[in-house]
Amino acid sequence: MASNSGQKSHKIKMMEEQLAKKLTRQVVGSLVGCVHCGMCNECCHYVLTHPDDPKMTPSYKADQLRKLFKRSHDWTGSVIPWWVGADTAPLTDDDLEKLKDISFGTCTNCRRCTINCPMGVDTATLNRMMRGLLSHVGVMPEGVRVVSKDQWEIGNQMGVLKEDYLDTLDWMSEELEEELGHKNAAIPVDKAGAKVAYAINPREVKYDPRTIKKAALIFYAAGEDWTMASAGWDQTNFGLFSGDDNLGGACGKRVYEQVAELGSERLVISECGHGYRSTRHEAVNWSGHPVEFVMESSVFTMLRYIREGRIKVDKSRNKEPVTYHDSCNLARSCGIYEEPRELLSLVVEDFREMTPNRTENFCCTGGGGAMSMSEYTPRRLVSGSIKAKQIADTGATIVATSCHNCVDGLSDVIKHYKLGCRVEQLVDLVANALVLDETERAAAEEAADRVVAEVTRAAESLPLAGRTVLVVDDEDDVREFLTTVFADAGATVIGAAGGDEALAKARAEKPDLISLDLSMPHKDGVETFYELRKTAETEDIPVCIVTGHPEFREVVYERPVPPPEGYLEKPVNESKLVAYAKHIIEAHGRKH
Amino acid sequence: MEHEPSSILATAEVIHWIALVVMAAVYSLRLRWLFSFKLAKDRSAPGNPARSDGKRGARHSLLNVLMPWGMESTRKNFGFYLTFVLFHLGVVAGITLAFVSTVAVGFLKIPAVFVVFELLLIGAFLIGMYRILRRLLRPVMRLISTPDDYFSLTMLTVWFALGAVTEAYIYGMVAFANELILVAYLLLTSFFLLYVPFSKISHYLYYPFTRIWIGRALGHRGSYPYSRS
Question: ipTM of this predicted complex?
């Protein structure tokens, strides 16, 4: 019994009850084993980049849970709490807000402190448990709440609707077939008995659908008997980030049940650090669901295909210098150190090791769900200076990684620190190095026919012919560039330099698509988007966010209105922009 | 017994042995308490069996203390690691001194033994002083320190100093020729034994378990032993 139990808020009492249910021998060991030696201090990227803020030290963060534990469970702490620091354990709901900032805003659960603790204290697990207790009483960053809600209710963390998901697979199938020049490469959906089921990150559907196409190309080239499920396809798991084991178990169970229903022997998990860790390991424990099939990262799959001679690669197709960023979840928590490097050695010419690497690599800054917590973005970007230096020191122009969170985290760091390089996943590099032999020859012949057909078709109708696009951007040169791209694609383009002007023109012109910048003076893109959605005349106009500030992304998706139909980061590729715009307009037309 | 203890010294020796028995009993309860919590088992298939497994991870983790090159925190702070080693050897020397003084005091009069004990105890005392200052002066250490941290460290540091003086007394250095030194040392050791199960000093009781558990967990996933280029 805590000496001051009478002052505890209801939420604190609920947290203590939940803590008692969650305590395992290993967790208790980590709670009582810390000697406050401070050895974890210099291992944390938040500490190293905030040298004047002692509260960044990992043991301080873990102490928040430790105090709660000691007040209720420890012999000394329950009798003389002040002696062991339990007197400052949280009591009020205001304290919970501070705890939220500590556990969500100053730690990415990268586990670098864990591996550097002489006592074997798993500080990252303690921080996750604190997040879980806070989530249990509804205290969490808004982004975490929204994403968790989507994953509970819609079945994937980005709220992708089934029709949009299937539509994207169709779109990628069409592109792939077009590129290969025949109709045998469509992505198989719900193919019962397929040997391999492929699960992806909803980010791929929403922001980066071509990774799906590239994976499909590799499966096709390997002659794999594979499929993607129409449900239970999201291998990501926000339960890992929010600390909610129930959500974590439910997410895993959806995937496991779907693979079992398809009768697949193997689940291949696309490149995602936390998704792999959750689906492959944690959710098995959270859900208690039996798993009868093999689960592997797509990194292993691609490497296996090359080793077995099922696909051929030509590393000379990737000439740029490449470095590899170890995802915290894949490396420190799942032991995937060498396989990505072996794969890279086969598909790139110039590989440069990052220092430190493997176990000792630093977080991309986007781990632990940090990308969904925009309120902590400035602090996160400061903590990225270590990563920026690591990348810059390699001299690489491509940072390869096997994790979607890392793609976003690293992209932010690269942009913020103006590093002049880009992030790619291994699937991108493998697909680029792929040698397609006979198929490729056939494709070349087809391509010649296609060029003729396309020239003819282009003359008849450009991709956006007959469409009206409203380009909203405060920067003149960007607006001019976008206007030119859309106009060249046949669209009638209207420009707007600010939010109010955009709203007025949207109401007046009813464009087929609005290309919307987020960072603008006065009424920014987020507010503009919200008003567009809240206004009856414009609520139905599809919006594609085109922004140079990906950190604002979650702010848009947090709004209680339907999400934007598209999202692109600057700088945008012209053909991608047009293809994406065409896809959005057509998909929107089919729905209505 | 190689000396004729006075009644006060005999009493201190009895208290000392009683304290040891009490400490052992309380430690048993401590372990029973720890083991009353359910053991979390990893039901997932081994993560990367080509690299490691639970048993290998647990073994390596338990021996981690002997491999300062294995962790960045000890590799980059090798000096601090050495102070850790000497500090804990000082603890071993201090405990040994207390028990041997009651059953085989002649051993402590061997010159080589005397030198070793003095070096360890004085060294540990100096490190204790350094650690107190480190804890007081560094904002990070102040932030994470509790009264128990300060008290435990101060008590041990005083105990090291008293141990060094006690060994000098036993060895026969004239300047320290007072039996009360040994009495005080035994009483302080008794208090130390009674206090440790309720303080941070009990970390050594948990240490093998925490190391084995983290090693087994990460070994099962294939991520431990650690990998770096």
Answer: 0.94
